[in-house]
Specification:
Two copies of one chain form a homodimer. The first copy, chain A, has 16 helices and 21 strands. Chain A is of the alpha+beta class. Chains A, B: It comes from Myotis myotis. Chains A, B: Its EC number is 6.3.4.21.
């Protein structure tokens, strides 16, 4: 898979946007003759963000762009040579020079999917050395995108479907690309647009805006507006002089409830459109303030949100991890005294089991070789963290992970951003009210099949494979 | 000033990384015939971050790179035409096509300077239309860089000068560029290095790393390490077999205090270097945990910090603003009911007044045309927020703002990142203990000259200029 022109202007990230230890480990694998051993990693989070029950998966599109463009340039390899031990075998650098992602396969939740703790957002398989090197950039591309999409989805749930929500946080973003990512994925999560022009140009996000205080203060009152005489909207009738009209109305408007004034004025002048002139607000709006603005009877139509959507102050990082689950066809797991940090071994499949009302009951993880669960059949599963198995009879079963990239080749076109946005809203609407509720939500169960649980038990006990 | 090759790989930001309203306002200025009116903006913050008394100024280097490369491409202008009203005069787009920063002048605090509320980090002057368009990208480039540098400086103050502090938060960063910015400016703020390879390649940050759990779990115990026989460090004596040696020591090491074991072992085997083998720790380290690890007697040498340095969870945004202070040679200010949001009008100079012990007493803002304050002479100044003037006799006076870019030309080479890092540490060491203390710090005073205060009073009263 050769590097290709990036239709969105530049690759989502560069290969050296990675932690040095990935390169150290790559050298270790290479020296041990294991660079090409087939390996599989899973990318997931351990806890849903913001105290909610769910997250939205996002960032896949950027990951695919990154993988397709992945090549180390000569200058990159030279830089790595300058930071690795001076006696490193030059053949290792030749190996790096020839690397690409033509051996890499990616299964993933579609963008905008509901995601739950421990269920892989991405499964990445391929030669051990390459898929190890991908860890940091993939985490970097998925974690923040999913965090922002989830944050935006929560704000949308609070605001309800009618309010227009605009992301205006570019100046508060953590770095220029943080701003671009935030604008893109807050749209995916349910916002209506962004002030960020680059997000419009590169990602097709609708762009919006008003004006800054500096525009007002730049006029001292002596400058004449360019077109003080306004023509009537209908094209007929006399032109009116804007300036005295503004001056006359300013004092009255500032003293009254705005919407009521619009209604009165609209009725008085037979201008019914005036009743529905949108009222927009912004200024440090967070979840609590948004809830107030969205209460029944609120006349606010448009809400601009900056810092609290872009920087996610309640939880500024999703904390995704990327864990090895198999190498050379053998399952691997991380054993630790902290049960939350223990990983689930083996190449897996994931299914969402739905109830008769169409809402998800639980997500099931099982070994890849097991047959898919069948709708209408009773299953015995092991909810994570529980000591007992339980039974469930799903009315419907949805496979969660789709094959997007096989041996470096894109298998099907990625949905557009707008399609993923619509999918996210559909997914959220299917969630039961108890799981959708922001606080305190009912916990959503993720369960293991009997076979996967048996494998965990066997490996935890240190038994040979 | 033509676009030029960017030595660091790409411009720090693109011109369309801006809020749409900047372009709307640009159109407004252009239609009013005011595009070229000389204007000046100041970029500053209103409150020091994290509850401390100070911030570190950072991001100037990226701003200069951005200004020097600033040109709207044809595709950019076409995109803007697609989002502005369809009847926009095509001559406006011709104006945009010809824009560059050849008329822009920038005064700024050197990178790594101590910065205080209301004192400009940047003063940007030039044609109104252009300097308005620069608002969002400059805020985006300065705010997060300064926030990260300040956060890193606080962590350095807590850790003391001896510990090696490493930034390892790339995977937790808010977008790929967020990661690059964080690695660069945490180094400027006092960290010793970063795991981020790209920050090493593009910015010269020292790169460091260990290994991940996946490396450990990728070996099942059956694979033979590549070089199981180790030669002695001194080059003489028998080679030892690594594997049984590791197995024998593992159980004993995990059960004891590590440094004591190093000492005992070093003494027993006449290997004194073993006593000083660095001990490194990481895992969710924040200010409180760092304080514990840095207590006297701690044997930890190296501390890796990720999420809490990179995402600044205590305050994920500095909240810088960019305000118009003069246009057409006339001072402008924003009047508001919120006194904290009121701006200081006019083109200004800023000075740091130092006491006889060399520590800063207060920062003084005055009108650009006033003579600089003199060391040893008593001054009457108005501390912000105070109702009374006070007098101060500085032992030394330092001008704060330096001319970096004049009419688009770089006036002097920017210091290297390492030089700015050293400057930041020197600046911090000169701060009095009361101001350097993290919580609760003594507030640092910023004061106005009599003339500047009189101008504020006059404009607040609505008097003609």
């Amino acid at each position: 898979m050769a590097a290709e022109q990036d239709p969105e202007g530049r690759a989502a990230a560069r290969p050296l946007l990675t932690d040095l230890y990935q390169v150290t480990m790559a050298l270790g694998y290479w020296r041990a003759g294991r660079a090409s051993a087939p390996a599989e990693f899973e990318l997931f989070f351990r806890q849903s963000p913001f105290g909610g029950a769910f997250a939205l998966a996002a960032g896949l599109r950027d990951c695919v762009r990154f993988l397709r463009a992945f090549r180390l340039l000569d200058a990159d390899v030279q830089f790595l040579a300058s930071v690795l031990p001076p006696d490193t075998d030059p053949a290792f650098f030749e190996h790096l020079r020839a690397l690409d992602c033509s051996g890499v396969t990616v299964r993933a939740l579609p963008e905008g999917s509901l995601a739950f703790p421990g269920v892989p957002l991405l499964q990445v398989s391929g030669p051990l050395l390459v898929v190890q090197l991908l860890e940091t950039p993939l985490l970097c591309l998925v974690s923040y995108a999913s965090l922002i999409a989830t944050n935006a989805a929560r704000l949308r749930l609070i605001a309800g479907p009618e309010k227009r929500l605009l992301e205006m946080g570019l100046r508060r973003a953590q770095g220029p690309d943080g701003g671009l990512t935030a604008s893109t994925y807050s749209y995916l999560g349910g916002f209506d647009g962004s002030s960020n022009v680059l997000a419009g140009q590169l990602r097709g996000v609708p762009v919006v805006g008003t004006l800054a205080h500096s525009f007002v203060t730049s006029f001292s009152g002596k400058e004449v507006p360019p077109d003080p005489m306004l023509a009537p909207a209908a094209g007929q009738g006399p032109r009116v002089d804007l300036t005295p009209r503004v001056e006359a109305w300013l004092e009255r408007v500032c003293a009254q409830e705005i919407r009521a004034l619009f209604r009165t004025t609209g009725a008085q002048f037979q201008a019914p459109w005036l009743e529905s002139v949108p009222i927009a607000v912004s200024n440090n709006i967070d979840e609590e303030e948004l809830a107030r603005l969205s209460q029944q009877g609120s006349e606010v139509n448009v809400i601009g949100i900056g810092t609290s959507v872009v920087t996610c102050p309640r939880q500024p990082s999703l904390g995704c991890v990327y864990k090895l689950v198999s190498v050379g066809g053998q399952p691997r797991m991380k054993l630790t005294e902290d049960p939350e940090k223990q990983t689930l071994p083996g190449s897996k499949a994931a299914f969402r089991l739905l109830g008769s009302d169409g809402s998800p009951l639980l997500d099931l993880l099982q070994l890849a070789e097991e047959p898919a669960p069948q709708a209408g059949q009773e299953l015995r599963v092991w909810p994570r963290g529980a000591q007992e198995a339980c039974t469930v009879r799903p009315a419907r079963v949805e496979p969660l992970l789709r094959l997007w990239v096989q041996q470096g080749q894109l298998c099907e076109p990625l949905p557009s951003l707008a399609e993923s946005r619509a999918f996210a809203q559909r997914s959220l609407s299917q969630l039961s009210p108890a799981h959708r509720r922001l606080e305190p939500p009912a916990g959503y169960q993720v369960a293991l099949s009997e076979k996967l649980r048996a494998l965990v038990q066997r490996l935890s006990a240190g038994a040979p494979l």
